[in-house]
Specification:
- The chain is mainly alpha-helical and about 290 residues long.
- The protein folds into two domains: about 35 residues; about 220 residues, Orthogonal Bundle (MetI-like fold), CATH 1.10.3720.
- It has 13 helices and no strands.
- The longest helix is centred in the C-terminal third of the chain and has 35 residues.
- The radius of gyration is 36 Å and the shape is flat.
- It starts with a helix and ends with a helix.
Length: about 290
């Protein structure tokens, strides 16, 4: 009986069910965040070191070439001779007072010329007839070589400080006026109509719309104006002056002191670079002020 029952069933050998393989843990993906500020800082440092390396290379090549005779040291001097002459002029001469004279006349002419030109250009918004009459004369003044008026201004104002300020002023005022006028002409007329429809008065439209709208144009003229102001002050010192770096260069040329001439050129180069950087900082401050408005 047991034999028949065992034959009636088929016995299979069952294996234990295999457990599914454990899920493979994938590594967590860390998002890549681009730090633009860090990249910009690295770029700025690289640019600064690159500029320094180029300057050092120029001075080294200049010094070596003059020492081995490939460059005539009488006409081109050398960095070591220029540094020695600069130290003598600082300790025994009037170099620091000359730098102060040139810097102050340049900065005053730049400030007054930029402000006066900006006000003149902004005033054209009040009357289209006034702007149309004034525009061709403004363009003519811009095309006029204003340095040709330097002898007249020196004779009129004397060889002192104010003639140099006037020359720097004349070099910058027209550029600022044209820049401000370009900003005035670009003001959105729909914005003006919106302000008028909201009950704004004319002076409110001018202060709230026209002036902020024109400020980028005025700011863009600052870098040009600082160079023009320095050029005007130096030309005035070339013509006639009792002080200034330009007077020092002219004096050095008359006595054939080439090293002193190169000292003046080097001082003007450093001075122009410092003024340019100062204007760049001023632009950033003004730009941040506009962004907050």
């Amino acid at each position: 009986m047991e034999t028949a029952r065992s034959k009636a069933f088929v016995v299979h050998n069952l294996r234990a069910a295999e457990s599914p393989p454990a899920a493979v843990k994938k590594p967590e993906v860390v998002p890549y965040i681009l730090d633009e500020q860090a990249i910009e800082r690295r770029r700025v440092r690289a640019v600064a070191w690159g500029r320094l390396a180029v300057a050092v290379m120029i001075f080294l090549v200049w010094e070596v070439f003059t020492r081995i005779g490939w460059v005539d040291p009488y006409f081109w001097s050398s960095p070591s001779a220029i540094l020695k002459t600069t130290w003598v002029q600082i300790t025994e001469g009037n170099l620091l007072s000359d730098i102060g004279f040139t810097s102050s006349s340049t900065i005053l002419g730049f400030v007054f010329g930029t402000l006066a030109g900006a006000l003149l250009g902004l005033s054209f918004w009040w009357s289209k007839s006034y702007a149309g009459i004034s525009e061709p004369y403004l363009i003519m003044l811009n095309a006029l070589p204003k340095l040709a008026l330097a002898p007249v201004l020196v004779i009129l104002l004397g060889i002192g400080f104010f003639s140099k300020v006037a020359l720097a002023f004349s070099m910058t005022v027209v550029v600022s006026a044209l820049s401000a006028y370009s900003g005035v002409k670009s003001v959105d007329p729909d914005m003006e109509k919106l302000m008028y429809s909201l009950g704004a008065k004319r002076w409110q439209v001018f202060t709230k719309v026209v002036v902020p709208w024109s400020m980028p144009w005025i700011i863009s003229s600052l870098r040009i104006n600082i160079a023009l102001a320095l050029a005007g002050a130096i030309v005035g010192e070339f013509i006639a002056s009792s002080k200034g770096v330009g007077r020092m260069i002219m004096y050095a040329g008359t006595i054939l002191d080439i090293n002193l001439v190169w000292v003046g050129v080097a001082v003007l180069s450093v001075l122009s670079m410092l003024m340019y950087w100062g204007v760049v900082v001023l632009e950033k401050l003004l730009g941040k002020g506009l962004a907050k408005q």
